[in-house]
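[stage:ingest] chain + small molecule (magnesium ion)
[stage:ingest] validated
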Amino acid sequence: MILTDPDSGTPVKVGKILCIGRNYALHAAEMNDAVPTHPVIFLKPPTSLIKTGDCVILPQMSTDVHHEVELVVMIGQGGKNIPLEQSLNHVAAYALGLDMTARDIQSDAKAKGNPWSVAKGFDTFAPLGPLVPSSQITDPQTIMLSLTVNDQVKQQGSTSDMIFSVPYLISYCSKIFTLEKGDLLYTGTPEGVGPVTQGDQLKATSDQLATLEVTVN
Ligand code: MG
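[stage:predict] done
[stage:export] tokens:
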């Protein structure tokens, strides 16, 4: 997918989609997972991306697809082994995102010690809201996130409750993966995840980010 850099207006090709699991203590608790001592990292393929106004397609393989509202970071300047104090200089933009998850497939994978790629990687499983330039966000740890399903509030949280902060995650991930312009980082979800069904209207809102709306199909 090609995005538009909100500062320069130039096209940006999406690269890796890095995602963080269990980055809010109350969500780890609702999943009966331990609070991690290191970031839990998984990836989604770029083919999972959709934009606001698009549809999430429920896969036939799953009967339990969940919403997870998250802060998403888009990398501007790439880098390797990025020092913590330099991390935010590598952010081009922020957005709301949904880390759609086939919970039944994920639970089975967890039980068997298998990867989460299928549970997390279906087409349309990475809705991404409009990009807000990083220059407009003073501190990414002060952002309120909310998700409604058919106008009912299901998730409400603050990025101040992240276990691993945005700068820490960028620095940590860059020790493993060379970060490149157009890479996305989904930073984990607060508590309140739950199932979606056909026809649901999902609306992610924030005090500082642009609204993301998708329909479940
Ligand atoms: Mg997630």
